[in-house]
Design brief:
With 516 residues, the chain is of the alpha/beta class. The chain is built from 19 helices and 13 strands. It has two domains: 5-249 and 275-321 and 407-436, Rossmann fold, CATH 3.40.50.720; 459-514. Its EC number is 1.2.1.84. It is a multi-pass membrane protein. It catalyses: a long-chain fatty acyl-CoA + 2 NADPH + 2 H(+) = a long-chain primary fatty alcohol + 2 NADP(+) + CoA.
């Protein structure tokens, strides 16, 4: 078997991972255990939650669907390499006990820092503590590690969201981190909120602001040990690994495909002509693992001294751009290829370019059906949630508008150069070049993955779901006919015109409704 430089690098090395229970973190764990059989221990920072110890949470983690293929390959014995470390990036010293901290100091060789709060609506106090101070706490630990070979910080392409053309470089800090930390620690949320707009300047929210500041925490340490920053854009379902279409994230297209397949999401505020920057989770994980190897290799070439900070964009906008108008007419087809047995109505998703038109259409196509469906749910003893969900979306539109209708171009020349510098074996095993990705096939797999891993519907009931989909189509057509017959009768009743004239007016109403 041909040798892999990256696999050889991680063989025998122990890795410390923050955010290990998240979408990125758990996929890193699976990839390392599956493709680097001689990797050392994987120390996962975890916190006890909802009355469950970290050991209990680890057992839950091992049941994650990311390990389905792993288990089919009968690799469960490698799960013994996982070592839970109780802690939290939001606590002093990461909340790690002195004994566990010493274990990390003595044994860890590589650190992947992926923990963050991704909530765009989170207070500046909380995002400063988790994203900025959390990163500082990780860097402080790294400075104590006796055998550290590399630190990889998972940032975001949107940390520079105030620019629409972004390069793979460190941009000036938006503010003094010490000042922001002091304000966050001394002021209450209300006082911070009053200062927020002034502090954020051109940043759209506290997430991008504090993640930008966090990059400078890593940059400050780059002269002490090898450091890399990766900036993924919107992270989406798996392209190839562990299974095409696999996902546990409801963010981005996975979330709205999930709602659309249920039949409850029928309109989406999105301009299909602008580039949407999506990047598959497996490419992100491969980029993180490759960067950990690469920054250490640069140190070896630099006479044992850390090279300058390495920054890579894990993005698609300038290399493999995706626009929804490339497949707008195919989305519904994919939804009907892989329908849900739990669908409440016939799926039919339309993209709306205007936010005010979306609000208008949401009243008719979201709130009215949700009102009646919630009543039915309540009568049948279920928990009504649709009205609440649609209200949450409605209330978040102003905050998300910038991300929905802005086109960013993230340069990825340095990442592509890194891919070309890899040997053939590593380029195949740790794919970071998406040149061969075809968006049609990818989104077909994504919708199938959403069905199986988010909606929890087995491939075995697909034919049953397709039969139900045809029934829902019949009901959908019947309801439309009934609706337009009602409009026709309403025109006759209100205007007093003949049925023949009303029939001539009806297409005007049909056209106007078609705009919603």
């Amino acid at each position: 078997m041909a040798s892999s430089s990256i696999t050889d690098f991680y063989a025998g090395r122990n890795v410390f991972i923050t955010g290990a229970t998240g979408f990125v973190g758990v996929t890193i764990v699976e990839k390392l255990l599956r493709d680097v059989p001689k990797v050392g221990n994987l120390y996962l920072l975890m916190r006890a939650k909802k009355g469950k110890s970290v050991e209990e949470r680890l057992e839950e983690l091992k049941k994650n669907s990311v390990f389905d293929r792993f288990k089919e390959m009968q690799l469960e014995s490698r799960l013994t390499k996982i070592v839970p470390i109780e802690g939290d990036v939001g606590l002093d010293n990461l909340g790690i006990s002195p004994k566990d901290r010493q274990t990390l100091i003595d044994n860890v060789n590589v650190v992947f820092h992926s923990a963050a709060t991704l909530d765009f609506f989170q207070s500046l106090k909380e995002t400063t503590n988790i994203n900025l101070q959390g990163t500082r706490r990780v860097v402080e630990l790294c400075q104590q590690l006796k055998q550290l070979d590399s630190l990889v910080h998972v940032s975001s392409a949107y940390v520079n969201a105030y620019l629409t053309e972004v390069e793979e470089k460190l941009y000036p800090s938006p503010d003094d981190p010490e000042k922001i930390i002091q304000l966050a620690e001394t002021l209450n949320d209300e006082a911070l909120k009053a200062l927020e707009k002034k502090l954020l300047k051109d940043h759209p929210n506290t997430y991008t602001f504090t993640k930008h500041l966090a990059e400078h925490e890593v940059a400050n340490a780059a002269s002490s040990f090898p450091c890399g920053i990766v900036r993924p854009s919107m992270i989406t379902a798996a392209w190839k690994e562990p299974i095409p279409g696999w996902t546990i994230s409801k963010n981005g297209p996975q979330g709205f495909f999930m709602g659309a397949s249920k039949g409850v999401l029928r309109r989406l505020p999105l301009d299909p002509s602008i580039i949407m920057d999506y990047i598959p989770i497996d490419v992100v994980v491969n980029g993180i693992i490759t960067t950990g190897y690469y920054v250490n290799a640069l140190k070896a070439k630099n006479a044992g001294r850390p090279a300058e900070l390495q920054i890579f964009h894990l993005t698609s906008s300038t290399y493999k751009p995706f626009r929804f108008d490339l497949m707008a007419d195919k989305i519904n087809s994919y939804l009907h290829d892989y329908p849900l047995n739990s669908a409440v109505w016939y799926p039919n998703l339309r993209l709306v370019k205007s936010l005010w038109v979306f609000r208008l259409s949401a009243i008719l196509f979201h709130f009215v059906p949700a009102f009646f469906l919630d009543i039915v749910t309540r009568i049948t003893g279920g928990r009504p949630i649709l009205m609440r969900l649609h209200k949450n979306v409605w209330n978040s539109l102003n905050t998300l508008e910038r991300f929905i209708f802005t086109e960013w171009h993230f340069d990825s020349k340095r990442l592509l150069a890194l891919s070309k510098s890899m040997d053939v074996v590593d380029r195949k095993k740790f794919v970071i070049d998406i040149g061969e990705l075809t968006w049609d096939e990818y989104f077909s797999n994504t919708i199938r993955g959403v069905r199986q891993y988010l909606s929890k519907e087995s491939p075995k009931n697909l034919e049953k779901a397709r039969r139900k989909d045809k029934i829902l189509l019949g009901l959908h057509v019947a309801l439309q006919l009934l609706f337009w017959f009602g409009i026709f009768k309403l025109i006759v009743w209100i205007s007093g015109v003949s049925s023949a004239k009303a029939a001539l007016i009806l297409p005007v109403f049909y056209y106007l409704f078609g705009l919603l």
